[in-house]
From TrEMBL:
Residues 137-225 form the CAAX prenyl protease 2/Lysostaphin resistance protein A-like domain. This is CPBP family intramembrane metalloprotease. It comes from the Bacteria. The chain crosses the membrane at residues 20-40, 52-70, 91-113, 133-152, 172-193, 213-234. It comes from Desulfosporosinus fructosivorans. Pfam families: Rce1-like. GO terms for molecular function: endopeptidase activity; metallopeptidase activity. Keywords: Hydrolase, Membrane, Metalloprotease, Protease, Transmembrane, Transmembrane helix.
Amino acid sequence: MNEEIQSNSLLKRNLSWVDLVMVLGGIICIYVILAFGTFWLMEHLPYERILMYLNAFLTQLAFALLIWTVKRIRHWEWADFGWSSVALRKAFPKIMGVYALTWVINISYAIFLYQHGLTPPDTDVYSKLLGQATWYTLILNLILAGGLAPVVEEILFRGIIFGSLQAYFGKWTSAVLSAAVFSALHFQAYGFFPRFMLGMFLVYLYDKYKSLYPAIALHALNNIVATLIAASLLY
């Protein structure tokens, strides 16, 4: 009976190829429009950091609008995106275990880069945002990276893209594709692999618990710790 209910729910929330192309096209259009708008403003306003924060917040808000548009067009309920209840207390050990594994991967990857003389570029937008150690920029970083981004991006990349790709591919093929899109759209070449692995772990939690809550918790934890570490190292 439970399998039948889950199957009916999956059929209800499947996107067509046209919908998937529209969603991915919408994401790309958001990045392109905001990037050109930010570059244009940088030529007229000497406030690079303010404009970077504006771009980051507008990106997440535009993603939220895209999600709302999908919801209206497809007539989905929020449960169709993965907003189903789960006992986080039961999921907590698994979340922490997966998070520990991300640290193993991140440290190993950092050592590999260091051994090959590779370091993040000084112009990297994430280094600029996360490296601002004043109290108000730290708060902005925590709101953006630890609050807004995990919720919006999990709905978009796990709830919509991964959840919908399963109509055409197997679970793990869909996981690889959605994680690759998730990582690629951060436009950070040197960080592609660890972010790809994070995307795979987020898919794992989402699929295991059939809920976005554990994935959001891991995403938020990862971003908050990264923000605090960057702030302390670059202070």
